[in-house]
Amino acid sequence: MKYLIIGNSAAGVNAADGIRANDKKGSITIISNEEFGAYGRPLISYYLSGKVRSESMYYRSEDFYKSRNIEVLLNTEAEEIDVKKKEVFTAGGKKLSYDKLLIATGSSPFIPLVKNLDLSKQENVFTFLTYKDSIKLKKQIIGKSKVVIAGAGLIGLKAAEGLFGQVSSITVIDLADRVMASVLDKTSADIIQGHIEQNDIDFKFQTSICEVHGGERNVNKVVLSNGETLDCDILIIAVGVRPNINLAKKAGIKTAKGIIVDEYMRTSVKDIYAAGDCVESVDMLSNESKILALWTNASSQGETAGFNMTGTEIKAPAAFAMNAISFFGLQLISAGVIGTSKSNEIVTDSAENKLRRLNISNDKLVGFVLINYNQRAGIYTALISDRTKLSTLEYDITSKDIGLDVYPKEERTKKIWNHKGGC
Questions:
Q1: What is the CATH number of the domain that holds 182?
Q2: How far apart (Å, rounded) are the C-alpha atoms in residues 364 and 389?
Q3: Distance CA 332, CA 358 (A)
Q4: What are phi and psi of 158, to 5 degrees?
Q5: Are residues 8 and 93 in the same domain?
Q6: Are residues 355 and 195 in contact, defined by beta-carbon separation less than 8 angstroms?
Q7: Which of 12, 52, 206, 400 could staple 46 via S-S, CB 3.0–4.6 A?
Q8: Which of 264, 282, 310 is the last residue of a domain?
Q9: Between 290 and 405, residue with greater pLDDT
Q10: DSSP state string for 10-39
Q11: From CA 381, how far away is CA 90, in angstroms rounded?
Q12: 259 shares its domain with 206
């Protein structure tokens, strides 16, 4: 059996593990358009800040591929899939055949239309999604640099944290009215923003960059939609990502915003699977198909795809939006439905730089935000995943801190014996 995987990040690597766990003899080839082995994308801001050295970026050892008899083709771009002949063609002219194919092409930065902006020519304009991005940005930093970051989402804020203390100033621009607007309510966002601002990072909301000025190879000023002009030595574009679906789309595989897959990670074409940030997942809370670009989601989807490619049939775990991150030591975990509605009960328990916000609907926990309050995140997550009726618990979860004793005795015993950490 020939297994071919396009993509070498969380989904692709975990798929290879899943394949090898069930098929010791089949050949596995991984194609990657990057030059590095399997590294941790969440670490790129820590590399930028100097907290993580280059040798510590990798979450798989150097002998990972060799020990599993996996062939890896780095710096190799997959250009075309012939679904009838079961062949993949690369930009370098290589032709690779397969019996089972996984598309794990991830996502790419979204570049907004900005007058005079040209990332192919301007040497001080960067995106911040890959290890290579972080390396290039690190080389550009000097102490007097004035940095402008377009985007106050997770990527933009982590870029700001990585640059802190190494440049003269950092200004973050966003069209929304708060940081991380897609995953945080205003109360939670205000706590995060206030903490980040204590580290001399400025925010400008409800505006965007509409024009850049400078020479052909550099940007030295940005013009905002509110008319303000900012000096700029380094510009980082971090306004969002888009799933890489063109390869699948050209091959006739069904796509929408992402590649369409079933619960076994099968695409619309036989023997072709997809996983990770390039696919649409069904959000268990809304029952809607959407892009859930999460490291843990990509990992579990990749493993699921790997198992199913070998004929060992399993379903992908139920998924919902979840983020676990820290900013300058402030711990944030958000999950599920964050917004409010008439049918939801919102419970907020807050103190200075600390918040517990629970979103309850129809006797079930459907979302939460925890700031510096993360010791019970695993239990809250389990309550959502298991669709637990809160009325069946031993006490009201809104009234006090929770532990495993919140579950009835029989259920508590099961969870203790099956406990794998995280609570």
A1: 3.50.50.60
A2: 5
A3: 14
A4: -70, -35
A5: yes
A6: no
A7: 52
A8: 310
A9: 290
A10: HHHHHHHHHHHHH-SSSEEEEE-SSSSSSB
A11: 41
A12: no
Is 137 in contact with 173 (CB distance < 8 Å)? Answer: no
pLDDT tens-digit map of 219-241? 999 999 999 999 999 999 999 99
Separation of alpha carbons 325 and 362, rounded Å = 29
Residue 146 to residues 60, 65, 213, Cα–Cα distance (Å):
36, 42, 15
Which amino acid, one-letter code, is at 187?
T
CA nearest to 5, candidates 95, 70, 93, 55? 70
262-308 pLDDT, tens digit each? 999 999 999 999 999 999 988 898 888 889 888 889 999 999 999 99
Evaluate whether residue 423 is within a structural domain.
no
How many whole angstroms separate alpha carbon 410 and alpha carbon 408?
A: 6
Query: What Cα–Cα distance (Å) separates residue 349 from each residue in 342, 355, 372?
Result: 20, 6, 12
The order of strands in the sheet holding 100-103 is: 70-73, 27-31, 2-6, 100-103, 272-274
pLDDT reading at 419 higher than 60: no
Distance CA 345, CA 341 (A): 8
Assigned domain for 321 exists: no
Look up residue 244 and give its DSSP letter.
Answer: -
Between strands 234-237 and 125-127, the pairing is: parallel
Same domain, 366 and 398: yes
SS3 193: helix
Q: 3-class DSSP state for residue 48?
A: helix
- Judge residue 160's burial from the number of C-beta atoms within 10 Å of its C-beta, 0-12 exposed, 13-18 middle, 19 or more buried: buried
The verdict on 136 and 203 lying in the same domain is yes
The whole-angstrom separation of Cα 168 and Cα 144 is 5
Q: Which domain holds residue 304?
A: 2-39+59-108+242-310
Residues 161 and 98 both lie in one domain: no
Q: Is 38 exposed, middle or buried (0-12, 13-18, 19+ CB in 10 A)?
A: buried
